[in-house]
Design brief:
With about 650 residues, the chain is of the alpha/beta class. It is about 35% helix and about 10% strand. It is built from 18 helices and 17 strands. The strands form four sheets. It has a six-stranded mixed β-sheet with strand order 12-17-16-15-13-14, with helices on both faces. The chain binds beta-D-glucopyranose (2 copies). The site of one beta-D-glucopyranose has 6 residues, from loops. The site of one beta-D-glucopyranose (BGC) has 6 residues, from loops.
């Protein structure tokens, strides 16, 4: 037995020796290329995070903490795998609710009170658990990425791609304020937003989480959203009640991976990394963003989660980020040599808190051991804990009263009005031949297409469930479908709206609005290999063709998380509107499409593309500023009622 063991280990050693020279060379090369040169990066400073008085207070708290308590602060568990009573054994510093994680005693699609109860249970668990020890409230984070989108009844805004089209950073800030209010009302302190990705290949399934393909627009939006969520950074006191901590994510170049592959490799040079992908982090940091989430992706073949030069030298050093760095969902487990439950590399690279949804217990134990053995230095642990306590203190978790909790602000009319305004402003008019739009309020309108009366499809991914699948209109008690909005508009003006997903009708309508597009998806599952819409099954095109064949003018309303190649659909429709993923306020579509009784517009189109629209299906990397640049509709394109243009047929091959 012993001999066999010896023999296998010799064999293994031989194999390693045979294989490793090439492998070592490759990874050494990668490692070399993946070292960022901090001096080339912009110099910035966190605003409003450091206050000498608070820092002295943190000194005192850290001085009283045991190693276990310190490491505990650095671990984040998912609420699907931890109970409040676990906190009396494990001094865990943070929890999150993942996209599919239900509140305590509830199902995934729960209302605000179930979430508030959950937040309160964990909070009191964290402060009452260990008598005699420092009471450190837990920090609760959630993906409120287009409104408080895990909560039934919440206001759901257009996904970021639609907000990019509004070109209105003041609106972005108001959306941030509302998202913060609805989140704070459920007792949750922290949102994993805004996404500052600058998607360069729209086959990426997270393209819609990005505001634009150009940093020029992402920059002011980053600032506006952080200020909206957190409030203005304030010298003496921290965040006010009704605001939350924001997260700039995912650092960095999540939108720059080769072929738009989620969690893939950004094989770009440092200049491009800085100019395109890192620029908006300057703005977020200067707006006082409290946390930054590291990207799953790699740069030059090295996982960002292990890249000390990016996290420590650049982000915390050169860019002066004084909040804390959070890893992504088991992102540390993807670092070579790491597992979900052990990864000193990620902490040594500079990550302050590891998102360890399921393996948090063993990760906690292993990390304590690694700190005891010196594999992770105490200085590194203390730096991480200081940053986490700083954010907790600035958030007021230690003393703040929370009058905002439980306030009935979820999905209120005032919030929905802002979402509806955002929908109006996000619509981009790509074609309007013969002036078919606006539609007279007195018209008989056929509302066709599978997505016409489907709020879930209008919301897309990250809505009530992780991928946004499985939702019905009943899950949106405060929402309105696009059909619902059209019906409301024409009925009040003496017209008639008829819902018919498959396009059948008894009385010939004056016009048909066909609402169609992508089905919900989120990260990982949303990646595609071709930009062609319905590459195989052309059922939406067929529907529009049959309406046209019967002499009915067709208005196409296209729901999608990215520009897609739709030339055949563009040719058959008289008018074509890119409506992105508008969310729960379908009425915003009717506001712009349906005119008054005389056919005059009530609202003009103002939306402009924040992503270039492809002319050919092979234009997978099509971005403003690149050469050659031959889009069908360039960045910034968008027709209005005042400025008319006829679109000639576009090539279909
Ligand atoms: C995503 C993050 C998200 C986190 C928590 C990850 O898979 O990449 O954007 O914040 O999960 O749900
Ligand atoms: C969670 C998401 C998370 C994803 C990552 C899902 O189960 O609900 O929040 O981002 O896993 O793999």
């Amino acid at each position: 037995m012993l001999r066999i063991l010896c023999r296998t280990s010799v064999l293994a050693a031989l194999l390693v020796w045979l294989v490793s020279p090439a492998m070592a060379a490759q990874s050494a090369d990668d490692a070399e290329r993946a070292i960022a040169h901090a001096a080339r990066w912009p110099r910035t400073r966190s605003v409003g995070l450091i206050d000498p008085k608070i820092e002295r207070w943190i000194d005192g708290v850290i001085g009283q903490m045991t190693l276990e308590e310190k490491v505990g602060q650095m671990i984040q568990a998912d609420i699907s795998t931890i109970r409040p009573e676990d906190l009396s054994i494990y001094p865990i510093g943070s929890i999150l609710a993942g996209g599919d994680s239900p509140p305590l005693n509830g199902e995934d699609r729960s209302n605000a009170s179930a979430w508030l109860e959950t937040a309160r249970a964990f909070r009191s668990g964290s402060v009452e658990a260990r008598p005699g020890r420092a009471a450190i409230p837990i920090l609760f984070g959630i993906d409120a990425v287009h409104g408080h989108n895990n909560v039934v009844g919440a206001t759901i805004f257009p996904h970021n791609i639609g907000l990019g089209a509004t070109r209105d950073s003041r609106l972005i800030r108001r959306i941030g304020v509302i998202t913060a209010r609805e989140t704070a009302a459920t007792g949750i302190d922290w949102v994993f937003a805004p996404t500052l990705a600058v998607p360069q290949d729209d086959r990426w399934g997270r393209t819609y989480e990005g505001y634009a393909e150009s940093p020029e627009l992402v920059r002011p939006y980053a600032r506006a959203m952080v200020l909206g969520l957190q409030g203005e950074p304030r010298k003496r006191r921290g965040v006010l009640d009704g605001y939350v901590a924001a997260t700039a994510k995912h650092f960095v170049a999540d939108g720059g991976t080769r072929d738009g592959i989620d969690q893939g490799d950004a094989d770009i040079d440092e200049k491009e990394l800085i100019r395109i992908h890192a620029a908006a982090y300057e703005d977020a940091i200067e707006a006082g963003v409290m946390t930054v989430m590291v990207s799953y992706s790699s740069w030059q073949g090295v996982k960002n989660h292990a890249n000390e030069s990016l996290i420590t030298d650049v982000l915390k050093g050169r860019m002066g980020f004084a909040g804390f760095v959070i890893g992504d969902w088991n992102g540390h487990g993807q670092v070579p040599g790491c597992t979900d439950d052990s990864c000193p590399q990620a902490i040594n690279a500079g990550i302050d808190m590891l998102m360890a949804p399921t393996a948090w217990r063993r990760l906690f134990e292993n990390t304590v051991r690694q700190a005891q053995s010196g594999e992770i230095s105490l200085a590194r642990i203390d730096d991480a804990v200081r940053r986490i306590l700083r954010v907790k203190a600035r958030l007021g978790l230690f003393e703040r009263e929370r009058p905002f909790e439980g306030r009935p602000v979820i999905g209120i009319a005032e919030h929905r009005a802002v979402a509806r305004e955002a929908v109006r402003k996000s619509l981009v008019l790509l074609k309007n031949n013969g002036g078919v739009l606006p539609i007279k309020g007195s018209a008989h309108v056929l509302v066709a297409g599978a997505a016409a009366d489907d709020i879930g499809v209008a919301c897309g991914g990250w809505t009530l469930s992780w991928q946004g699948t499985g939702n019905t209109n009943a899950h949106f008690p405060n929402g309105q479908s696009i059909y619902g909005g059209i019906r409301e508009a024409v009925t009040t003006m003496g017209g008639r709206a008829e819902l018919s997903p498959d396009g059948n009708y008894s009385v010939k309508p004056d016009v048909a609005i066909v609402v169609f597009g992508e089905r919900p998806y989120a990260e990982m599952k949303g990646d595609i290999r071709t930009l062609g819409y319905q590459a195989t099954d052309k059922s939406d095109l067929a529907l529009m063709k049959s309406l046209k064949a019967n002499g009915i003018p067709v208005v196409a309303v296209f729901l999608s998380g990215r520009p897609l190649w739709v030339n055949p659909e563009l040719n058959v429709a008289d008018a074509f509107v890119a409506a992105w993923l508008p969310g729960t306020e379908g009425g915003g579509v009717a506001d712009v499409l349906i005119g008054d009784v005389a056919g005059r517009s009530r609202y003009d189109f103002t939306g402009k593309l924040s992503f270039s629209w492809p002319k050919r299906v092979d234009q997978t990397r099509l971005n403003i500023g690149q050469t050659p640049y031959e889009p069908l509709f360039p960045y910034g394109y968008g027709l209005t009622y005042r400025k008319r243009a006829e679109l000639p047929p576009v090539p279909e091959d």
